[in-house]
Amino acid sequence: MKKLLLAAILFGGLLLTAFRVAPGTLTPDERKYAVDYFLKTKARLTKDLKGLSEAQLNWKTDTSRWSIYQCTEHIALAENVIFQWIQMTEHQPATPEKRSEVKLTTEKLVSMTIDRSHKFQAPEMLRPETKFPSTEAALNAYTLRRDSTIAYLQTTQDDLKDHFLAHPLFGTMDLYQGLVFLAAHSERHTLQIEEVMADPNFPKH
Hints:
The structure is a single chain. The protein is mainly alpha-helical. A two-stranded antiparallel ribbon has the order 1-2. The protein starts with a helix and ends in a 7-residue tail after the last helix.
């Protein structure tokens, strides 16, 4: 009986090891980096928005620029849409042959995403159009989705390395990079909020 139990434990351990190192799953370092980045960018956005008045939330530097509310709405919409895109792609057959199409490192992808010297046009579905009744509602939607994504990153064993997204600006990226891009997208528009707040004409209250 003891031999059978020992054999079962050893066999289970081998299976667990194989599962942990299966192609496409995250390494401990990748998992920590992504989770930490998601937490950091969430905290920064939440801190920036705390205590702002309606006048401050809706003020624009000019009519062509987004207000803080509009930036927050865009962040909240993208948080959900991009994650759904990643999840739908993960449920498709793996395409490891596309690995050679990935041209950017994860670090370069982040640096290009948060570079505010380059402006991009938001897709139609992600343009702010007062889809939330308030900035607080937009932030709550963002927080719910963000917390769920963090929980996913902390435990997932999904194949995130052999499934790929075709981004219109950054080209082919694997799903791990797609998730990191999602956090970087939040940081990019948090920086945009901080630009609005730094304007000398920004309302004092």
